[in-house]
Design brief:
Helices cover 53% and strands 7% of the residues. The chain folds into two domains: 2-83, Glutaredoxin; 94-210, Glutathione S-transferase Yfyf (Class Pi), Chain A, domain 2 (Up-down Bundle), CATH 1.20.1050. The chain has eight helices and four strands. Helix 1 packs parallel to helix 3 and helix 4 runs antiparallel to helix 5 (136-154). The structure holds glutathione.
Length: 225
């Protein structure tokens, strides 16, 4: 049996949940995968048991049946993408894969990561883990905003970032924008294309819509088989 340790509202574990959802798969409904919810506010990632599995004390973390531990969201998503579902959301040929990788990294490092820094430097819940510099929070939000024109122009005339197909890059950009929306940032106020993208992704991958989206994508995949 494999086990995926996650915290559903946190952005890095959310990547794994949404990657599976985008393939019509419900993370809670995979025969050989056990899901364990980790409550960060209760410091469940610092228990002796969890620390023994992942001394970095982060989620997501995944253990495979042979004892292998994956303790990084990108590694876990690569694994889940290859093992579950048919069509890859990392890209289906070498060029598409490289383009998705590039877009995903820019979305991650310029958008999501900067919002995470803003949160880590401003939230009392992170005070123990991070040597906080509160003035870093607005600067980090500003840095994320600086990257947005790049995505605004990539989405001109396109629903998705790469080859007009939903990919992992879209999921990471959406997760970044959505995480920013919990801070002092409005994802619908930085260009028409980004606003359209955010609203469409949220209608599919927002928490309220997720179960229905999985059913729809699964039905579409089944009808293509
Ligand atoms: N490189 C890691 C980073 C994971 C990470 O930072 N996860 C956050 C949740 S989004 C976490 O576990 N934070 C623990 C804490 O803040 O104490 C990955 O992408 O998996």
């Amino acid at each position: 049996m494999k086990t995926l340790y996650l915290t559903r509202h946190a952005p890095n574990p959310r990547k794994a949940v949404l990657l599976l959802a985008s393939k019509g798969i419900d993370v809670d409904n995979i025969d050989d995968l056990n899901v364990v919810d980790i409550d960060l506010s209760k410091k469940e990632h610092y228990t002796e048991e969890f620390n023994a599995i992942n001394p970095m004390n982060t989620v997501p973390t995944m253990t495979l049946s042979d004892g292998t531990v994956l303790n990084d969201s990108q590694a876990i998503c690569e694994y889940l993408d290859r093992v579950y579902g048919e069509r890859s959301v990392m890209g289906n040929d070498v060029v598409q894969r490289a383009k998705v990788c590039a877009m995903r990294r820019i979305a991650e490092f310029e958008v999501l990561y900067n919002f995470m820094l803003a949160f880590q430097h401003s939230s009392p819940t992170k005070a123990e883990r991070v040597d906080q510099a509160p003035e870093f929070a607005p600067k980090s939000i500003g840095r994320a905003i600086k990257a947005l024109p790049y995505f605004e122009s990539a989405l001109e005339g396109h629903e998705y970032l790469v080859n007009d197909q939903l990919s992992f890059a879209d999921l990471v950009l959406y997760i970044g924008l959505d995480f920013g929306s919990k801070l002092d940032f409005d994802p619908t106020a930085h260009g028409d294309n980004l606003a359209r993208f955010y609203k469409a992704m949220d209608a599919k991958f927002g928490n309220d819509a997720l179960k229905d989206t999985i059913k729809k994508i699964k039905a579409e995949n089944d009808s293509e088989d």
